Every structure is written in structure tokens, then in C-alpha cells.
Amino acid sequence: MDKNSIYLGSEYQFSFKFDQNDVINFAKASGDDNPIHLDDEYAKKTIFKKRILHGFLGGSVFSKVFGTLYPGNGTIYLKQNMSFYKPMFVETDYVAKFKVVEIDSIKNRAKVTTEIYDNENQLIIGGDALIKHPSIK
Hints:
Blueprint: E1 11-16, H1 20-30, H2 35-38, H3 40-44, H4 55-69, E2 76-84, E3 94-104, E4 109-118, E5 123-132
């Protein structure tokens, strides 16, 4: 099966990282200018001791993958739930992991687990998504 095949049990992984410009642009787009994301001095006084990514910036990788990579063009993103377990940081390597756990071949839909792990294989974000794509049979 090719990398874009969606079937029960299929899996996909995507490695990524964000830089501070991504954080600044997300803050502008979302209006979330919480200093924990933007101000070094403020962040040093928090439990994290340094700036963290917006949780939804981290989770946005799921949209990128579904819309452009797996299964890609034509995907309709219907639903997403996420739990945030650990903070994410700029210039840090992460891997997003996807696994198809349910298929509705009549509606061309799939339920897919969506997880982000750090380079120590710690779960950072966990959840699942419901997507629709013509290739889901």
C-alpha cells in the first residue's frame, strides 16, 4: 500500500519542529499573546522556566498532515480532540504519530489516533480525529 492509503490499522509518522517565528506568527493569527509564549523574562518565572509553544500550534501539525500528506488533498477534517500532557518548546524535534482505529466505508470516514512524542518518546499531545476522504473505503 502507498503512504496515502487509509485502512484499518494503517499508520503514518511525521517529524517536525517549530521555531520562534512560528510562535510569533501563531500569536498574531490567533490573538493569543500570552507572555509564556513570547517573553523570555516572564517565562523564566514560570514552572516551565522558558517559553513554550501554544498548545494549538503544536496540534496544528495534525491538520497539516491530514490536509497535505496523509491522506492529503481532498481530506475533510471533521473532528479533533486533544489532551495536552507536556509542554512543547521551539527548536525541539517531535514526531506526530497517526493510526487508523475505525473505518466507516459507507461515509468514507476514518477515526485516527493523533499523538505527538518528543525525542525521549514521551507523549506530549494525545487524542483522535475524524476525517473524511474519498479513498477511505
